What we know:
- Helices cover 21% and strands 29% of the residues.
- Strands 5, 6, 7, 8, 10, 11, 13, 14, 18 and 19 form a 10-stranded antiparallel beta sheet that branches.
- Bound molecules: alpha-D-galactopyranose.
- Residues 337, 367-368, 412, 479, 481, 527, 529-530, 546, 549 line the site of alpha-D-galactopyranose.
Amino acid sequence: MKTPRSLATSIVLTLLAAATCMAQTSPVFRLDGGNSTYAFGVNERRELQPLYWGGRLGARDGIPPAHSFPEMASFDSSYTTTPQEYASWGAGLFTEPALKVTFPDGNRDLVLHFVSATPNGPQAVDVLLKDISREIYVTLRYSMDPETGILARSAEIENREKQPVVIEQAAAAQWTLPPARYTLNYLTGRWAGEWTLNQEPILGGARVIESRRGTTGHQANPWFAISRDDSHASVGPFAAGEEHGEVWFGALAWSGSWRITVERTQRDAVRVTGGFNPFDFGYNLNPGEHLETPVFYGGYSDHGLGGASRLLHRFEIARILPHAPDPKPRPVIYNSWEATEFNVNEAGQMALAEKAASIGVDRFVMDDGWFGQRKDDHAGLGDWYVNKEKFPHGLKPLIDKVHSLGMDFGLWVEPEMVNPDSDLYRKHPDWVLNFPGRPRSESRNQLVLNLARPDVRDYIEGFLDKLLTENDIAFLKWDYNRNWSEPGWDQVPVDEQKRVYVEFIRNLYSILAELRKKHPKIEIESCSGGGGRVDLGILRYADEVWPSDNTDPFDRLSMQDGFTYAYTPQIMMAWVTDSPHWLNNKRSTSLTYRMLSSMQGSLGIGANLNHWTAEDFATAKRLIAAYHSAQRTIVRGDLYRLISPRDGSEFSSTETVSSDKSRAVVFAFANATQEGRGFPLLQLEGLDPAAEYKLSWIEGKARPDTPEIASGAWWMRHGLQLELRGDFQAAAFRPDRQQ
Ligand code: GLA
């Protein structure tokens, strides 16, 4: 959706008006973008107080200035009942603080007051706060995206005292919603079971979603959506639905330990606080130093969870991803991991490459096993030289072969890890996270290199730079196969050691940024044993992600459904692998079902092509061609989750519609129908009701009396009846607007 010129002008004027207001004693700041307005002000105590977050207000509407709330009882002082934009722990605050600090003299009281504000772009403002007596300054940054109304918020904490202070807790932002009944939506999981959408009422107390693992984690993802239950458009206890009702959502751009706390206050308002995880935190901030928090993005939709995810998808494409605002759709890849595991060699990979090229694959990716003494997961990580037994002439012959077949070449790496059985570890045993004299717990026989160390950081950047300079590599699958343990960093003074939680991630980002600068054509996938590192922080440097090691096509339907609440299908890699599948007691599914399940995202093939029949090759070739011609609509269009596969649903269906509404692609799955039930009436969404659309079938069919051409209104209101039932059946079709 483009912002009309008049609207853009009004945003600028609003900001100017806000800037003018700053001279007043109770300034009010207002940011408008997309269909949202966000406003906050300075109350009579000079605290920064939220005033409004929701649907867009009229351009001339005034926002009343902030007033602190009264004490509710002697147990709840005004400081705790009054919501703040960034509440520091002090003065009797009992709700979750954004900032908590200990001073060297033992003082732990911090009370932030407004100092000044500086417009920082047409929809952006920096607000400076300072403690009432100490020289601790906090700059809150606000920047609203004019298209989606998604607001980027972060904080920079500065120590202008003469001595260090310890930051025990630092959020990126706090969001406040007015008193109402709400449902919290959040994503949890585990290895091979990521992306479960949880929905629960927000009752008294707090719900914490977090990672203490030094990384984003499979177990919870730094995203939330809060739907309003009692909005006019909703019904039932978990009401604001898929396409109706008010939803506030947020995503934290951080790939280290993080925490989001959702609490219902004594006044029944909801506050969301998110940023660095305070668990084992303790950032020693020296005089003159700054600590910059991650960015916490927040947005609003009055079109339910579907509307919220469409805004996020658009935002990720337009503002976050490396080639924003127009990252190109992902090449269809082949990856041999599930076919060969560590058993890679020149002849075997070349044979697979030939077969992959014959079905229309664009990119051939060699996975784990090509380097060092890597025969299995016991050895080799850290030794990033080509294994001469497997590739006697280096990688060049394979890369040349892949190029001659019309594909580009990608390679698997796991740069942050080391096996104790490696040359690197034998040479640098001190390079791993550890506490001296304590055990070094291994997972998958590997340890985590301490990227916070400048020498480790430089080693990693150096070997990757060399690899990319010496070989024509278009793509890196960047893996990360365990979480932290014993996160010690003994090369720096004791009071600096906990900085590892911040410096590790900053160095990871800086390596990625440098590599992308030096090798502008490189594309990168963020993988962490599946979906363990997917967040808006890594997505500034990664073009795509691997959502899960679980490639069972039926399981993937629910995972992909969960994934798309927070992330765009553009980055959602989905491979077609072998059947029977290794999980779920070797469930068997047809190649067509597997292909259609994966075609909902960015398609890849991960099967052992040496076992395919001529019919399999023909099916895959036909469906890859169909995918190529529909891909842009699938991964860049507006996504409607028509029928959810969650909770053991017999059926599921998704639809994506191009932004000009001229094309759509619909996928439908019957997973294990019962009692002869037919597929539910499929009513499409997002088409132009007045335009005519013609259906063309990629796979499957509708009931014989279905018209071939009908209006958008017909497809959306009357709907169509698919002929789809049984176990693991799939259909896909394209409604195309007629000229
Ligand atoms: C992780 C990845 C897999 C594969 C293996 C290789 O588990 O998620 O896709 O690359 O590592 O060891």
